[in-house]
Amino acid sequence: MITNGTVSVRLLHHHRRVRSRHAQDHDFAGALLEYLWGAVWCFFAEGDPAAQAWVHDRALAVLGGKAREVAIGIRRRATTARLNKQKRIKADAYAKYLTNKVKYLNYPKALAEGWPVASGIIEGTCRYLVADRLDITGARWSVNGAEAVLKLRAVRANDDFADYWKFHLNNERHRVHETRYADETIPIAA
């Protein structure tokens, strides 16, 4: 699973890790494109058709495992273009994002493993799992209360409720009854 590291997505990632053996904390394609579109306006005038081609080429390079090279290219272009201070700060920030996230932007591995690389999947799941339940008007949640509700929603959404319920009943029986007797064996009534 490819995520962008936001709080709600991290909650989702935590719950999905129980079910998915392939979950990884990567940044998703939507965040990558957001940063590339931010960088492009440091170099191109608004509406310049070349901007789209620039973003396209850089996105393909990152998807090909060349995030560091794209960051270096952004900085090099910023130096060559002698950007004003404001644009240079922005260009450096976008390049820094890519540099800082290199280990998370291993799209070739993610794609080879068959992990979904799309913000729509993640955003839709977060909306369904988290927002539809927790973002209701007037609701106030403690961290523990929200965590409990999200765990149950994740279990239900993954069709694991029957297995979870067996696990829960066994643990409750052990906690409430078996631990109160010698050798944790409940005596049989005569």
Q: Low-confidence parts lasting 5 or more residues at pLDDT below 50? A: 1-28
Count of beta strands: 0
Strand content: under 5%
Question: Quaternary arrangement of the chains shown?
Answer: single chain
Rg, Å, rounded = 24 Å
Helix content: 55-70%
Q: Biggest sheet, open or closed, and with what strands and sense?
A: none
Number of helices, where a helix is a run of at least 4 consecutive DSSP H or I residues? 9
Distance between the termini: 55 Å
The gross shape turns out to be: elongated
Report the mean per-residue pLDDT as an integer.
78
Order of helices and strands: HHHHHHHHH
Class from secondary-structure proportions: mainly alpha
Overview of this protein structure:
- By secondary structure, this protein is mainly alpha-helical.
- Among the domains are: 27-105, no CATH class; 160-190, no CATH class.
- 67% of the residues lie in helices and 0% in strands.
- It has helices at 7-19, 29-43, 49-63, 67-80, 85-100, 107-113, 119-134, 143-157, 161-176.
- The radius of gyration is 24 Å and the shape is elongated.
